[in-house]
Amino acid sequence: MNFFVALLLLLLPISFLLLKRSRTSGRLPPGSLGIPLVGQSLGLLWAMRANTAERWLEGRVKKYGPISKLSLFGKPTVFMYGQAANKLIFGGDGSSISNQQTQSLRMILGDRCLLELSGEDHKRVRGALVSFLKPESLKMYVSKMEEEVRSHLEMHWEGNQQVTVLPLMKKLTFNIICSLLFGIDRGERRDQYVHHFQEMIEGMWSIPVNLPFTLFNNSLKASAKVQRMLKELLHEKRLQLQKGAPSHQDLISCLLSIRGEGNEDSLSEDEIIHNVMLIMAAGYDTSSVLITFLVRLLANNPTVYEAVLKEQDEIAKSKSSGQFLTWEDLSKMKYTWKVAQETLRFYPPIFGGFRKTIKDIEFGGYIIPKGWQIFWVAAMTHMDSNIFHEPEKFDPARFENQAAIPPYCYVPFGGGYRICPGYEFAKIETLITMHHLVTQFHWKLCCTDHFRRDPMPVPTEGLPIQLSPRNHPFQD
Predict the structure, then answer these.
(1) Which of 86, 121, 260, 413 has the highest CB neighbour count under 10 A?
(2) Which residues form the signal peptide (predicted)?
């Protein structure tokens, strides 16, 4: 009898768990997880490269509704979009959902970067990054950033009749990163960083199969090389700080200098390296893509181009020859930034992102189990006619009154307490670059108007343009 009682006591909780799991499974979002490990990853990646990702996801919405399950990059995943989904992703306190990227991205960038942290760790690391990237700190770096822009245009644009915009913008943004964030001068060392870094980012959105000659394997090897180089750089910066170098001469020096009571606010070496790599990746792609699509837009929209040119010419006329831009000059570029915001609405550099459930959560009438990924997509909310009037129309005026845009509906830089800490940095380098481009050059497109996602939006052939100085007409 005692045996049967003990057996009953053992089976009751097991039966309860099985019953609970059965009920939870019955309330999972509709959809299929597909083939193990691969799932729908290849379908999404192919759609992104063919620039049909929104259509691919719209097909899922028509079939399953605004929330559905699938498998991406080796993990069971729930896809969702819209204001309520964005609020769930960006507006929580971190108790139900944690920030987590794909396995491939996590292994390449490291597990101590901001995209992977939650709670107090996220707050501490984010606070350290913001101490350098906040507007009050960035004001002193406007002229240094402009030096990089002027040098770049002189070296790669002036005197050329044709240039290809995207690779040049990537070169510019990486040089700005090296200068302001790392304190690395032009030369062989920068070139080595660029080479290994480009190899590293190519596999961040790949299937995490670590076999020889795969894209993922090559990216892991490049990541290891970048991390070794950054460790050497950290050692050099420590020595410079010990000799009295200013703590805010660059981001790495700033992070090394942070000390709290009992060193509670200091960052580990891994945290510095992983977050420097994250900022490298974010700053390299997002700003270069934004500037490239602004060049593309201004070539196709004469009315917007003339308005931007008028604003920038007025600022240029207020400066004496060779005089640098100031923080006050940037604050006058209001229309130019509205054009940039509308460009980000149309072509958000970050197509989407991932989160991880810390516990079972209920959303939209379904249960998302603990440990599953959530895949959110910015572009579909940006093009929702229930949020933005005539979303297919390019209209910078919609940002005249930003308070009129409902919360969690415009998310090119994320939202809530997880909004990108590099937002102001990207804004400054975009405005400085566009000021010099429109005041120094005319341009025409030399390619079709198509683009693909890889996973960032990439214009056809990198956007080659015919170039002419402002004071000379085009030579046909």
Answers:
(1) 86
(2) 1-26
Range 197-215 average pLDDT: 82
**CATH classification at residue 342:** 1.10.630.10
Query: Rounded to whole angstroms, how far apart are CA atoms 343 and 390?
Result: 15
* Segments in 374-476 forming alpha helices (H): 378-382, 423-440
H or E stretch at 97: strand 97-99
With respect to residue 9, please indicate whether it lies within any of the assigned structural domains: no
- The pTM of the full predicted model, rounded to 2 decimals, is 0.85
Band (pLDDT 50/70/90 cuts) for residue 4 is very low
As for how many domains the chain has, the answer is: 1
- Residue 254 marked in a binding site: no
Which token pair is 381?
């909310």
Which residue type does 24 have? T
Radius of gyration of the chain (CA): 24
**pLDDT tens digits for range 263-313:** 566 889 999 999 988 888 887 788 899 999 999 999 999 999 999 999 999
The 3-state DSSP class for residue 308 equals helix
Spatial distance between the Cα atoms of 282 and 316, rounded to a whole number of angstroms: 30
Inter-residue contact 49 to 453 (CB < 8 Å) = yes
